[in-house]
Structure formats: C-alpha cells, structure tokens
TrEMBL record:
One of its GO terms (biological process) is ketone body biosynthetic process. Keywords: Lyase, Metal-binding. This is Hydroxymethylglutaryl-CoA lyase. Residues 4-272 form the Pyruvate carboxyltransferase domain.
Amino acid sequence: MSKEIKIIECPRDAMQGIKTFIPTKNKVSYIQSLLRVGFDTIDFGSFVSPKAIPQMQDTAAVLAQLDLSQTTSKLLAIIANTQGAEIASEHKEIQYLGFPFSISENFQMRNTHKTIAESIITLQEILEIADKRNKEVITYLSMGFGNPYGDPWNVEIVGEWTEKLSKMGVKILSLSDTVGSSTPDIITYLFSNLIAQYPKIEFGAHLHTTPSTWFEKIDAAFHAGCHRFDGAIQGFGGCPMATDKLTGNMPTEKMVSYFTAQKQNTNIRAMSFESAYNEASKLFGAYH
Ligand SMILES: CC(C)(COP(=O)([O-])OP(=O)([O-])OC[C@H]1O[C@@H](n2cnc3c(N)ncnc32)[C@H](O)[C@@H]1OP(=O)([O-])[O-])[C@@H](O)C(=O)NCCC(=O)NCCSC(=O)C[C@@](C)(O)CC(=O)[O-]
C-alpha cells in the first residue's frame, strides 16, 4: 500500500516577506479558506521578533480568530528562539513548532543572529520545551542544498548534521532549499540515502523553485522516497532573510496535479482547493 502524501501549506512563508502589513482579518480569511482544503498541516504564522519579521507580529491575533472546529489540518508555527517556543506552546491549537536550523553560518546569523554552535544549543532547549508542553518540533535544515554565501556545503556536511540531529532526538527534518539552489541529482542523493539511513526520522522537502524547475525537483524527491512536501499556493513568498530577491515556494497547485497524476492520495478537496487558490489570487494580487 502506498504511503499517504503529506502536503504542508505555508501561508507564513508566502506572507512573511511582504513589506506592506496585511490586515489581520485578511490573513484570517485566507487561512480559513486553507483550513477547508485537507492539507496535512498549515504553517500559518510565526512567533519571532516583530522587528525581524513585522508581517507576522499578529500571529496570536490571527490564531484567536480562526475557526478550527471543522478542520482536519494541524497547525505549525515557526519559532526562532526559546522565547518563541514558550509563547507558541501556550496555544493548545498549535501542534508543531518549526525551528530553522541552518548548516550555513551566514544564513543562521542573518536569520536568528546566532552561530550554528549557539543554534544547536537553542534547538536542544526547544526540543526540551516541546517535550514538556506536548508539542512536536519540525527542524528545517535551511540552506540544506547549498548557500549563496560561499559557506562550506557538501552532501557529507548534510549527512554529519543529520547524524547529530538524530542523536539529539530530532524526529521530523525538513531539508530546505531556502534559495532554490537544489538540483534533481542532489535531491535524489540526499533523500534516498538519508531516508534509508534514518528510518525513524520523517524527512520533508521544503523546496523553493523557479517556474521551470518545480517538476524535476518534486519528481526527484518523490522517487527518492519523500512523502512530506511543503509548498505555497502559486509559489508566493520565500525567506526575506536569505537574499535580496525572494525565490518562490514550491507551488502547491503543481504538487497537487503532480501527485494526482502519480495516483497518490493527498486528501486535498478539489473544490475547496480552487476556492483557496482564488483567495490567494485576491490576497497576494494586491501586493505583487
Ligand atoms: C531570533 C531573533 C529573535 C533574534 O533577534 P535578536 O535581535 O538577536 O534578539 P533579542 O533577544 O535581542 O530580541 C530583539 C527584540 O525582539 C524581541 N523578541 C525576541 N524574540 C521574540 C519572540 N520570539 N517573540 C516576540 N518578540 C521577540 C525581544 O523581546 C527584543 O525586543 P526589544 O527588547 O528590542 O523590544 C530574531 O532574529 C528573529 O526573530 N528571527 C526570526 C527570523 C524569521 O522569522 N525568519 C523567517 C522564518 S525561517 C524561514 O523562512 C526558513 C524556512 C522555515 O521557511 C525554511 C527554509 O526555507 O530554509
């Protein structure tokens, strides 16, 4: 029997880099449309410094206004320090805390003002907070496919960090292509080797892409055994801490059509997906 495909929709990643503040009610209305679709998880907001990411400063207010009574989706919030982990853990509606851990020193500094060595200590503390508060942690291996800063990167480095994270008790590891630099060969190599070597870790693909490379990236990750995929409708967004130019997210509509063609179950309801897609056009159309 084939394993179900988990699609993680990331409105947080789609919105966080938009400079104009999106009114809370518009965020609520958009996320509400996503909650009807059947996504495994919605990465809906973040509890980070409002100076670092002003767009996400109303995450608690957004959460308070969501109607979660009908949804099957779980909620994920990004956190970047223990303060964020404590705040997010106060909310019983949030199942997952997502921590961006980068194997690029430059990106980790840009993103969280901490070195890799300091961040690994933060991650350990976050894992302990999550354990006490009954939350699961998703660790992102940011710049997992290389980086634009000239920091050392190769597949052995990814392997060594995966070993360390596994020993620390990381259970979900999302290999993140923060600036869209991955190639199908590297995707295939990393997923097929790491999935075989660490059967207790659930590996995810958080891929960024240009419109011409989405297919080869998803196809490589899927055929290498990955079943957990992040995306954002119409590919909106990207990480504003990475480079001056955002590289869009993996477009969810492309993934849905890909997995439908592969006869894989994603639990996506087509009509609700279409409504959410239209909501995305209205919401993001105003800012692009
Ligand atoms: C980590 C820090 C806070 C360090 O930032 P800092 O300036 O070094 O930290 P600080 O402790 O000095 O705090 C600065 C101010 O922020 C406040 N603060 C501090 N923490 C919080 C918090 N949790 N919630 C609310 N407020 C907070 C804190 O209280 C203080 O306020 P002030 O005293 O100046 O008024 C900052 O750099 C930060 O927030 N970074 C987050 C960056 C971020 O959200 N990046 C995008 C998400 S990650 C991503 O997109 C990648 C991903 C996941 O998609 C995967 C991939 O593609 O790679």
